[in-house]
Design goal:
Elements: H1 5-15, H2 55-60, H3 70-87, H4 95-101, H5 110-121, H6 125-138, H7 146-152
Length: 153
């Protein structure tokens, strides 16, 4: 079955419906280590629903998924995935490929695999299935690093 863009976006929206933003002090996996630099656009945000995150912030903060705590990862990941699906034909932002890299455990050092595993463990089964659908969809897109999407699957 070939997944349509609309199907994948709807699956992401349904799976992550109701996920709320953690407070600023719980956004970083390792607070007070300088990682604030990678998420400065998100600090102090007042939105509480990931659907309301400004697309310009996602486009700008290409490395944010690497520093989020597990609860922040669950909150921001659907915004990143839907942004990638909706913008891969028009944007040249590093966010396109970095989102895929941040879902791929292949070739990672043990510490990175452990940290990423903590983030992935915070996903529900339904959310994990939505991530898989996203990766399958993106694995067929030649404009981005579809190899990373295939590897993450």
């Amino acid at each position: 079955m070939v997944l349509s863009k609309e199907h994948v976006v709807n699956q992401i929206r349904e799976a992550f419906l109701g996920v709320k933003r953690p407070p600023d002090e719980k956004v970083l996996h390792f607070p007070n280590t300088g990682d604030e630099l990678w998420i400065e656009s998100f600090l102090g945000n007042t939105e509480t629903d990931w659907i309301d995150i400004g697309p310009e912030k996602i486009e700008y903060e290409c490395s944010a998924l690497t520093v989020f705590s597990p609860s922040a990862f669950v909150y921001y990941l659907p915004a990143y995935m839907t942004w990638v699906i909706n913008n891969y034909t028009t944007s040249s932002s590093n966010t396109l490929d970095h989102t895929l890299y941040d879902l791929d455990l292949t070739g990672r050092e043990d510490i990175s695999r452990r940290i990423m595993g903590e983030r992935f463990s915070a996903l529900s089964r339904e959310q994990g299935q939505a991530v898989l659908a996203f990766l399958k969809y993106m694995s067929g897109i030649k404009r981005i690093d579809s190899k990373a999407a295939r590897s993450a699957i």
